[in-house]
Amino acid sequence: MKPTLIITGASGYLGGSVASFFESAGWNVFEFARRQANPARHCESWSLESPPSPDALRKLNAQALIHCAWDFGPTKWSLIEQRNVVGSQSLLHAAAEAGVPSIVFISTISAFTGCRSLYGRAKLAVERTAAQLGASVIRPGLTWGSPRSGGMINSLRASATRPVVPLVDRGQYPQYLLFHEDLGSVLLQLAESRLSFSGPLTLAHPQPWPLHDLILKLAADQGRNPILLPIPSSLLKTLAIAGEALHIPLPFRSDSIVSLVHQDPAPDFETAHRLGLLFRPFGSAPTQSRVVRS
Length: 294
Prior knowledge:
The protein has a single domain, classed as NAD(P)-binding Rossmann-like Domain (Rossmann fold), CATH 3.40.50.720. It has ten helices and 15 strands. It is globular.
């Protein structure tokens, strides 16, 4: 019989790419979702506000559970904590009680001691619960894939087609990127008990891409040469806060500005290096070798 993976967040870019990777590796993928991402998969109605019972998880006899889901709607800490933190903790507790052999929480490279963003703080709170339960914690960088991929990189790719692209401050803030199949490869090794580590594991190619250079690269790949217009981060944050208060949809959140400006000054790439994990650089051909362990 095929091994079974339970995944949350499969309707998003990151979760969807992980689900597809496991399917290509011969796994049966079972979605826990508010809405089904792939009609061909089994799906259980679930949300961060309605955690599953250990019995419901136990019946699936899953080899692994990967928690990718996150609700970006709330902007106030009380709601973020209630929905994302408590909901994620409840799911991890249920999976541990059900005896799921491999439990993985997808955190973020924006989560680190002293982080200022609410997103990073919330992920850190879930990380602590994951550690107590013996679950693995992954901190991926900015995930990229094909030109048709989604997520933040696709938003940046779309913005790079405009004649003028607003830039936070001078665009000096570095981005660390991770090819989506490289993430899938590491998660598969975890699910198959071929990889173990303690503490959060940061996954990204160690070469930083300043936001300025990244946008120009995405533009050049599409035959564009936009003007980059620096805008003070303080002004962008003020506009975002006003938009959130007035319920005006904007392409960026105030907390995202905080994450960008107040980044981890020293992401831990050493642990992945000690494990022999090598990642392809941004922009390399997808046909190049996947994650390898030396």
